[in-house]
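Batch manifest, entry 17 of 40.
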Amino acid sequence: MIKIKQLLTALLLAFSASAYADEPSAFSATIASISNGVDSFFNDYTGWFVGAVFHSVPIGDANFPLIVGWLLLAAAIFTVYFGFVQFRRAGMAIDIVKGKYTDPNSKDEGEVSHFQALTTALSGTVGLGNIAGVGAALAIGGPGATFWMIVCGLLGMASKFCECTLGVKYRTVLPSGAISGGPMYYLSQGFAERGLGGVGKFLAVGFALMCILGSFGGGNMFQANQAHAMLTYAFDVPSEYGVITGVVMAALVFSVIVGGMPSIASVTEKIVPWMAVLYVGMALIVIGANIGQVGAAFSAIIDGAFTGAGVVGGFIGALIQGLKRATFSNEAGVGSAAIAHSAVKTKEPITEGLVSLLEPFIDTVVICTMTALVITIAGLNAGPFDGSGLTGVTLTAASFTETAEIFKYLLALAVILFAFSTMISWSYYGLKAWTYLFGEGSKTELAFKILFCFFVVVGATIQFGAVIDFSDAAIFAMSIFNIAGLYFLMPVVKKELNSFIARVYSGEIKRFD
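Output type: structure tokens
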């Protein structure tokens, strides 16, 4: 491992020396100046937007972001409205992923399989939020935040089910056979069917604009930035050489996204399972090595969920941090995943809705909980929980390395894989929003892909705060337009669900075991 570290550092330094004639200090100063300029611009001109999206109301000693309540309330309503579909039909969802409801001789429209659609959407949600985000939640909300993350993840499964069913039902099949779908299409077409085309078009355009902005920021620049930060942490790569990381990652991203959804899906179906196995495997090793502390960790999680001992804001503080991290991590209700799921090969929209409800379970209930257990067992986030000590990715990394130093390097690999997979998925989300606004065509698509890769380099190069705040706000502003439409269109989904289940029970829809 030391040889690999030395080799990587030597290669980066050699490349950097030839790329920049100026001294590193001068180069660093230039990068810092650019970062500050960009950050100041966004802070001065978009601060109002960020403040509006993340507006909070005081509850006790804590502040509750209304956007979190918007997402959580929708998840609860969909859970009840669809008869707790995420629990009653989970087995059927797994069977659909396995292909047991797919006719091997069918010629259904679409570009990818159920499994490929699931892994593509998962690659967009299973990312740095599962590593850094959970660390931030537990640094402020204590172990009890974990319990509320799980609750929110379970409820969010119903939101994913609703939006992804609509994504397939209202998708557009292009002459080339490629698929365009997602909230832009079901908002415009679904509302038009009910004589409210103008309202639907407004919601669709608003969603598309926010999706493009979110894809450049949280789905791109933030991922590249954190990937380079992890290289700096694990391998001592100079932070000022982020441009090299950016160029390499941009080249890799472009080589995948230039081939469209089939190329993206073929990569994600290989990367996502392995990166999940790597990360969960690391967590299980840490848990196994500290098996005697697992009982105490679960006790701390349960006790902290309802008492919030040592947490700023007490019980409410733990609850808010847990809900906030879960909704920000699995993106249930945001609408992004519906874009990927729309490309599936099926003639039954409800099948992909059922497949999609597995995402929040994998993302939040499994992976986020694993991270929380590792942090709780390590005990590095001892109260009082005010976020003043280790937080975010540093808390998670330090918790893993408490068991073995090698985890620092394995975690760096996991972060890079998570960042890369998130970027290629969000490139597809942004592309479909882009073509919805500016029209389909090879030149239009190529322009977006080149622009997207340019921002990969920018993201890895500069440090920023307000830019990320803005892009996060754009991503969650997507949910404002999306959920408003879901409330209006959820009867369509319920009708599809009842029809599909009835045909399964009657034998009209067959299993292929």
